[in-house]
């Protein structure tokens, strides 16, 4: 039997972890990433708190040469500012498809995955004037 553990990180130091559940992973959906450079998830929203400019905040999740092992590229832009990074799907979950959702927070997207029709948050991408932040918000492991 395969299990998934989830730890939520609710502190700024990253030292406090809270176990939020144990999931059985007997029927994990198989996802095969498309060729390198393919956008697998993307969204954008207008920046409304800057009346002088017509900026947008956008996030794209793209495949790269490591996506067959579960690693993807993140490209984000807030007006003229751009940021990029990479993330790896949870250990043992490299066959999960990345999903992008809007957060309730302003200028923020959540990258996660769906398992058994439930969305699991994984990374947060947020933008503000002069700053784009990409950070891990939860940890999972399929064993």
Topology (SSEs and partners):
Layout: E1 3-9, E2 17-24, E3 39-46, E4 56-63, E5 71-78, E6 81-88, E7 98-102, E8 108-115, E9 118-128, E10 131-136, E11 138-142
Antiparallel strand pairs: 1-2, 1-11, 3-4, 4-5, 5-6, 7-8, 8-9, 9-10
What are the key terms here?
143 residues, mainly beta, 4-stranded antiparallel β-sheet, 11 strands, 0% helix, elongated
What does this structure look like?
The chain has one domain. Strand 5 and strand 6 form a beta hairpin. The chain has 143 residues and is mainly β.
General form: elongated
> In percent, how much strand structure appears in the residues?
over 45%
Class from helix and strand fractions: mainly beta
Helicity, as a percent range: under 10%
* Average pLDDT figure: 82
The count of domains is 1
| Number of discrete helical segments | 0
The sequence of SSEs as H and E is EEEEEEEEEEE
Radius of gyration: 16 Å
Count every beta strand, where a strand is a DSSP E run of 2 or more residues.
11
Spatial order of the strands forming the largest sheet = 3-4-5-6
Short recap of the structure:
The chain is mainly beta. The protein contains no helices and eleven strands. The protein has one domain (29-137).
